[in-house]
Specification:
The structure holds two protein chains of two kinds. Chain A has one domain (about 5-65): Alpha-Beta Plaits. Helices cover about 25% and strands about 25% of the residues of chain A. Chain A has two helices and four strands, in the order βαββαβ. Chain A has helices at about 15-20, 45-55; strands spanning about 5, 25-30, 35, 60-65. In chain A, strands 1-4 form a two-stranded antiparallel sheet. Chain B has a five-stranded parallel sheet with strand order 8-15-9-10-11, with helices on one face. In chain B, strands 22-23-26-25-24 form a five-stranded antiparallel sheet, sandwiched between helices. Chain B has a three-stranded antiparallel sheet with strand order 3-4-5, with no helix packed on it. The chains are: A alpha+beta, B alpha/beta. At the A-B interface, α1 of A face α7 and α8 of B. Bound molecules: flavin-adenine dinucleotide (FAD) and iron/sulfur cluster (SF4). Iron/sulfur cluster binds near residues 15, 17, 28, 56 and 60 of chain A.
């Protein structure tokens, strides 16, 4: 089953915790903004994305099933 | 809470009891000194539970009840209400509480900040626009409160007993920068002198320093650190030493684990018995101990994270990863102190041990990974030079 990664950019403070956990999905660039590299990263990365959801101090990441 | 979620996720289908002495459902503490105090956030936003998911987790709550005793042998936790809970596995996550100043006595207008109720009481005091706010202790929480009060337009004085605020963790140079950020924003920072007493009739009016200085105050917030909540474990047979002492897999006794602010364990990465008072660790360790409990004796993995935390001071997001000391060697690896946007690496005994960032999250995470990988100080500096060229 596919899923989409969503980030609430009003909450996100670019602390890059998610990038450390799932570098294939999240990247904080030199401009200090967070970029989502893969919006539908697929099953292999699911565990990493879930951990990012849990560890994001701002609770800014969510997973939309579909 | 995180432990309970993980237990369920990993397929544990037995009973889970959650005991908490506060009347509230679990909530997030970091916003208390930031968005809650400033009035930017409503209370609902700090909740850690989601009513929609609660049924799935099927937890048994014991809120407003206190664990008063543990029997390691019989595997029973006794609660204040008289209930005895027997267990197959126990997670100790009783956190820490603020140290208060004894000389504060019962004067009104003196607060510490740990829980939701504290934050609300302080917020309503701030809303009454006091003339003068005094923050005792320039730790990270004290400093956040000072910043938030200042941003509300109030006159704020911060008093720190050490010569340089944050010196113990950040070292003299970086500690000074942090204090200067406060001075830039109009906070009066007094260092190198401790508080001797408070004066006032029913309510505090003055703070008296050891050197005789008197400072007017109509609201005082004390932030001089926390101590772990371990009193209920006295006599249980567990080793208590500024926290619940665990092995490197966070086990304090067979089938008894500890996590968060209350746990002390040997972190192999830093060769140090540590107790970490950071949000990220509470989450990571909470997840780790859930797996540890389920794995039983077969799990020999050790818990060796690189601690990390953030703090918001005015418009600066300060992050610190690793284990720094005031005697470490330091090197600015990007940016400059003048622009207040930089990252500083900390080295000790030939190893990279810490990274401090002022609005530099990407660098902090990069070096955090390098710390976790055991990078030498030499290689870290070489990396910085290469990036700069
Ligand atoms: C104002 C504030 C701001 C913060 N800001 C940051 C930040 O910016 N960044 C960061 O990294 N960290 C921050 N922290 C630290 C972070 O919130 C803590 O590290 C984290 O809350 C620790 O979680 P815990 O579960 O170990 O303990 P706690 O959150 O303290 O939870 C322990 C719970 O157990 C209860 N309890 C204690 N004894 C008993 C008993 N005998 N029986 C039953 N219940 C008991 C307590 O009342 C409490 O509710 C902040 C903390 C505060 C207070
Ligand atoms: S962890 Fe959360 S706050 Fe941090 S960069 Fe990722 S989404 Fe943003």
């Amino acid at each position: 089953m596919g899923y989409r990664v969503e980030v609430d950019f009003d909450l996100c403070e670019s602390n890059a915790i998610c990038m450390q956990i799932a570098p294939e999905v999240f990247e904080v660039r030199d401009d200090d903004f967070l970029y989502i590299l893969a919006e539908e990263p697929g099953g292999d990365l699911r565990a990493q994305v879930e951990e990012s959801v849990q560890r994001c101090p701002k609770q800014a990441i969510s997973i939309a099933e579909g | 809470m995180r432990t309970a979620e993980t237990l369920r996720k990993e397929g544990f289908d037995g009973n889970i009891h959650l005991v908490g002495d506060e009347p509230h459902l679990p909530y997030d503490r970091p916003p208390l000194s930031k968005q809650i105090l400033s009035g930017d956030w409503d209370l609902e936003r700090v909740a850690l539970t989601d009513p929609a998911k609660d049924d799935e987790l099927s937890l048994e709550w014991h809120l407003g009840d206190k664990a008063t005793q543990l029997s390691v042998e019989e595997k029973i936790v006794s609660l204040d209400s008289g209930t005895d809970l027997s267990f197959d596995g126990l997670v100790i996550a009783t956190g820490a509480r603020c140290i208060s100043l004894r000389m504060a006595g019962d004067l009104e207008g003196i607060y510490t900040l740990r829980g939701l109720d504290d934050a609300l009481a302080i917020r309503s005091e701030l809303e009454a626009t006091p003339q003068k706010v005094v923050v005792v202790g320039a730790g990270f929480i004290g400093a956040e409160v000072a910043a938030t009060a200042r941003q509300r337009g109030l006159e704020v004085t911060m008093i720190e007993a050490a010569e340089v605020p944050f010196e113990r963790v950040l070292g003299p140079e970086m500690g000074t920068v942090t204090a200067d950020v406060h001075r830039d924003h109009g906070v009066e920072v007094i260092t190198g002198v401790a508080v001797e007493s408070f004066k006032g009739n029913r309510r505090v009016e003055k703070v008296i320093l050891e050197d005789g200085t008197e400072i007017e105050a109509d609201l005082v917030i004390v932030g001089i650190g926390v101590k772990p909540n371990t009193e209920w474990l006295e006599g249980s047979g567990l080793t208590l030493d500024n926290g619940v002492l665990c092995d490197d897999s966070c086990e304090a006794a067979p089938a008894i684990v500890a996590a968060g602010d209350v746990a002390r364990w040997p972190n192999r990465l830093f060769n140090e018995n540590m107790r970490v008072e950071h949000w990220d660790n509470a989450v990571e360790q909470g997840v780790f101990v859930a797996r540890r409990l389920l794995a039983g004796k077969s799990n020999t993995e050790s818990y060796s994270p690189t601690p990390w935390f953030w703090t918001d001071q005015f418009d600066r997001k300060i992050q610190l990863a690793g284990r720094t000391r005031s005697t470490d060697e330091i090197r600015i690896v990007t940016g400059s102190i003048e622009e207040r946007r930089f990252a500083t690496a900390y080295g000790r005994e030939g190893k990279l041990v810490g990274i401090l960032g002022f609005n530099r999250p990407r660098h902090v995470m990069q070096y955090k990974q390098m710390i976790a990988d055991g990078t030498s100080w030499e290689d870290a500096i070489a990396h910085a030079e290469q990036q700069a060229s």
